[in-house]
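TICKET #2291
ISSUE: user wants both folds in one file
ATTACHMENT 1:
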Amino acid sequence: MAAPAAAKRPCWPPAAAAAAEPNKRHRTADATPMDAAAGAEAERSLAHAQRRQQREHQQQQHHHHHQPLLPGLPDHLAQLCLAPLPPRLLRAVCRPWRRLLYSPSFPPFLSLYAVLDDGADGGVSFAAYDAVAGRWDELPEPPMPSPPPRLWHPSFLSRRLPLQSVAAGGRLVLVAGSTQSLSPALPRPMVFDPSAPTPRWQLGPRFPFAPRRWCAAGSARGRVFVAGGVGAGYDANDARSGAVWDPASPAAAWEPLPPMRDCRFSRDAAEAVCSRGKVCMVSLRSRGAKEGAVFDLCAGRWEDMPPGMLAGWKGSAAAASAGGAETIFVVDEERGALIAYDWSGDRWRTVAESERLKGATEMAAGGGRVCVAAEGGAKVIVVDVTTPKPPWRAGGPAAAPSTWEVAAPAGKRVVALHVLPRMTRAE
């Protein structure tokens, strides 16, 4: 049976009908005013909907970034309530608390700052270890002079050139270094403030003496302390001069120190550590014949170093508050021992002894911790020097302090350490 005519109808119009009917794609020109008005209204409705979605998204973002720290309390009062909590807890609870932890308005926790050897080219970089987050964060590059300081020289491959840095007034300060031609590299200090709203490097005032290297440098009651050293050429007056400066007051000038008694502090980079109002330093950090000097900040004069202090000073040194008093710590790199100085008895006591401390060359102290660069700067050994732990048994020796390790950033080695407030950042 033949199929019905309707079933045989093609899906496109016959040729005659197609010729008689205008192309549907060109009918817009013949659209009525009512159709044009409807199209315009649809476009306005679509644009309105898009703007509404954008406003809602912005409101959600605003709410996300401005939700209260503690519901029912203004943020400034909530910060007072949260300040005593451990930083690890604040970071783990919620995003608003984590952001608060790294904001410039919140009391900062302490971090470990390192000057790093970048490798064979002798370049240098800087990083901060955040113990709460468990990571290294790079610092911005400082505005290095030309030529910049170097850590290695082709003629002295067995000895690293020091880039001397100081932690003072909550800031990291570069004070002395050597160029590739073994000339002083820094005509003025460079200062990094980690607690600033936008952490960056700034230049301090020019030194009141010729730029130098191989000097004694340290912190004295929040101020940068520099003494001795050698400039482009040896000069006895430079080798006996010194000055102090407050990095918290960039506009302040350097204050000169009375001349040192001799010129012996110009052979090596030396740490100047402050304890009980006195700045102490030795002319040679390693074992061997050395001289010591002490500057009394209150009396404003140089003194001889106590003989017991000089005899036991056999390595890198740092000073920090421990047990309510400011204590000088030294790491004996040959013994692998961390020792602390006792002013009353003019003697050193052993705090910790470990094979891991052997060969240590750099150290820093703060917040009840002593941090020591070991294994050529490949790692940092952290020693807890807070109140000693009770003995394991009655009458026995005190338990050894807790120690742990922090690996240096990949491909780099630590050449200097400092303990400073954590770096402000957007979290």
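ATTACHMENT 2:
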Amino acid sequence: MALLLEKHLFKMPPVHHPSRSSIRGHRTSKSRDQMKAGSSKLIVTSQPIHMVSTMSTHNASVHPAPGSFEDLLDHIPLPRWAIYAIFGMGGLIILLCCLCICIKCCCKKKKRQKKDQQILFKGLDGKTATALVQPDMEDVDYGSVKQYRGKLLYSLEYNATLSELTVGIKQAESLKAMDLGRSSDPYVKVYILPDKAKIFETKVFKNTLNPFFNEQFTFQLSKPALQKSTAVMKVFDFNRFTKHEIIGELRVQLCNIDQNHVIEEWQDLAKPAKFEEENLGEICFSLCYVPTSSKLTVAILEAKDLKSMDLGGSSDPYVKVQLTLDKRKWKKRTTSIKKKSLNPYFNESFTFDVSLDQIQRVNLVISVWDHDAMSRNDSMGKLFLGCDSTGNQLRHWADMLSNPRRPVAQWHNLLSAEQVNASLGLKKKIPVPSKFKENNLLKKHFK
């Protein structure tokens, strides 16, 4: 029986298993037939049809791209609040640095405005440079009344028929004490600028701060000269063995006085001016700079109304032309000497090699000297031009730089040597020991 069953099983036909594609095709064909057969049985509804996705949700979540900001934050071993705090502190530090830089730049600009402006001419384009010119320093008031120095009663009277100006020194009150005993020995000097031909002095009053002078002094002044003159009254403290100390001064412009009436008034003493406004004469010269060849040409043309230095009322003037570089003396040339003349005519030119970089740091010093054969030469007046100069001198220098290859001539008033030297501020040379000089001379001699 068992053998019959095994034979029967082995003789059964093989079972056919349909593939997935055939099943799908069969289903789609069957569904098409059903749709064709039952198309009349379709039900149309007005309700929206909701499509339900049967896809698994574990694949729908989007993973962040590798290297994103959030991924970077996740890798930092700190809590989020600490990371945000660090970023906030960093941004605050950057803002504070920017604020400090802005404040520093503003402070630098203010300091530059307070200092004497130094103009650096970077280009020579032929345009005018009047906008770069500093204001003239002649109008600067040196007399600031920060410390009370007392007051002075004076009088002014002008006689037009005799061309005489009478200056009266009446009295002073509450003068500044200059001695150790809280007192002073005051006296007054009176003179007229710019000529300063005569200087008068009052008597000295001992140990008083309220002296009564009651003295008058007469000056010969024509009407045209009166309009350009200034009466100067300086109060000094007398010292027998040391230099007399100045207490204060008054300066009255004579062009403002009434010529028909006597003027008598009190005025507070002011701090004395640093330099006197003397009439030292004028000088005319031309400047020409050629940037391509780096040549600076200075032509000394003439001078007029120079100060008489000799006993005979004349002078023997010559002109010294000097260049300074970085506040140090550099090059020097001199003109010929003109004997016994206060209005000399030179017409001499000098050429210096100055590069475009050096022209921004160089100063030109023009000085007039009186030649003496038996004694030391005397200075008659001085001035300097360059980026450190002011007024007409700076304007002349700027015109030269803005007009290359073209000579620019101009008249200039001479100033005192003390005033120009103080403005220049030249660096002093390092003193060389005498033994070192002797050794160098011996080496040169035996070479």
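RESOLUTION: both attachments delivered.
EXTRA DETAIL ON ATTACHMENT 2: The chain has a mean pLDDT of 77.
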